[in-house]
Amino acid sequence: MKSGGLKQNNMIPQDKIIDGKAIADAMKKEIAAEVAEMLDKGMDAPHLAAIIVGEDGASQTYVASKEKACHSVGMTSSVYRMPANTSEEELLKLISFLNNDEEVDGYIIQLPLPKHINETKVIHSINPKKDVDGFTPFNIGLMQLGEPCFLPATPAGIVELLKRSGVETAGKHVVVLGRSNIVGTPISVMLSRKGADATVTICHSRTQNLPEITRQADILVVAIGKPLFLKADMVKPGAVVVDVGIHRIEDPTTEKGYRIEGDVDFDEVAKVASKITPVPGGVGPMTIVSLLYNTLQAKKRK
Ligand code: NAP
User: Fold this and answer.
1) Atom 15 in ligand 1: which residue has the minimum CA distance?
2) Which is deepest, 39, 130, 188, 256, by most CB within 10 Å?
3) Is there a shared CATH topology between the 42-127 domain and the 152-284 domain?
4) What is the DSSP letter of 125?
5) Which CATH architecture has domain 152-284?
């Protein structure tokens, strides 16, 4: 039986693997210490709220793990569960309530929303001061300008993961696969900013000669949503590979009947990469810890 935790492969030296879970745990301890200090001073704990509309299984699991993470660092968490047939107006009413609720420091709206709700309109109605997911145009604009803001959780987690693993980005060629608003585009911006100083190429479904481009990368960030897409012959020997993808693949040989894979063919690519993030146990835990970090910042800014 395969384990459900951090990817194990006896052929891959462990020092090649970027252990996102261990790094996220260390960050959680730092956040917990700051929360404890706030409580000692008589302040309330930072409060993260989540809105979830409908019964999507993956969304439920994700929100549950955020709640657990909040409690593990001493933060307050609340979840607003709304049925799938909730109207856009009802959702906007709740958003307006949370925008003005003094007790809530930050909140997230779990995506995707049911099709009858206009996602753009909903995101635009979030108070940017409480937008701990960093999805509002206001925070995206500030990110682009390199000004203090709530950075989107997954790319912020990737930047921290690279920093804490001793991966130098300055002057390196980073190739990003995928240009989504939540991962590919913001990570390209963040890594090319002053401070990170990488030279970034961004690829998407219309990119031609993709393997030729990926083979030039010193650091590859793969966020295309296709299981096991990146193969070893697409990677320059010694490159660092960050796998953002998460896929549940049916597998009757495992206890749960499925296994989790990323966008990277880990077993093959790990042989040529100098460092690689596993799935699970790589980028995923960093995403949640970034959200906790943003919630702490929201409380401090108040
Ligand atoms: P997305 O919105 O589906 O975007 C995928 C991107 O990949 C698009 O820009 C698309 O190009 C590009 N693409 C698709 N096929 C391609 C190909 N053959 N060659 C080159 N580019 C291609 O994905 P996302 O939301 O960024 O998510 C990507 C993956 O990360 C998913 O597996 C998701 O579940 C996972 N994820 C994980 C976390 C985490 O915390 N670990 C967080 C967010 C997402 P076009 O723009 O041209 O269509």
Assistant:
1) 205
2) 130
3) yes
4) T
5) 3-Layer(aba) Sandwich (3.40)
Tell me what the pLDDT averaged over the chain comes to: 95
Q: Which two tokens stand for residue 274?
A: 């100098």
Q: What angle do CA 101, 103, 107 make, to 5 degrees?
A: 70
pLDDT in tens, 54-102: 998 888 888 999 999 999 999 999 999 999 999 999 999 999 999 999 9
Burial label, 271 (beta-carbon count in 10 A; 0-12, 13-18, 19+): middle
Average pLDDT value for residue range 98-116? 97
The confidence band for 8, taking pLDDT boundaries of 50, 70 and 90, is low
Instruction: Please name which of 281, 282, 228 lies closest in space to residue 251, comparing C-alpha atoms.
Output: 228
Task: Dump pLDDT digits (tens) for 167-215.
Answer: 999 999 999 999 999 999 999 999 999 999 999 999 999 999 999 999 9
Contact 2, 253 (CB under 8 A): yes
Which of 205, 221, 248 has most ligand 1 atoms within 8 Å of CB, for mutation? 205
For residue 112, say if its preceding peptide bond is cis, omega within 30 degrees of 0: yes
Residues with catalytic function = 66, 110, 133
Question: Domain ranges in the chain?
Answer: 42-127, 152-284
Cβ atoms < 10 Å from Cβ of 19: 20
CA of 211 from ligand 1 middle (Å) equals: 17
CATH topology of domain 42-127: Rossmann fold (3.40.50)
Structure confidence by residue, pLDDT tens digits, 139-180:
999 999 999 999 999 999 999 999 999 999 999 999 999 999
pTM, whole model, 2 decimals?
Answer: 0.94
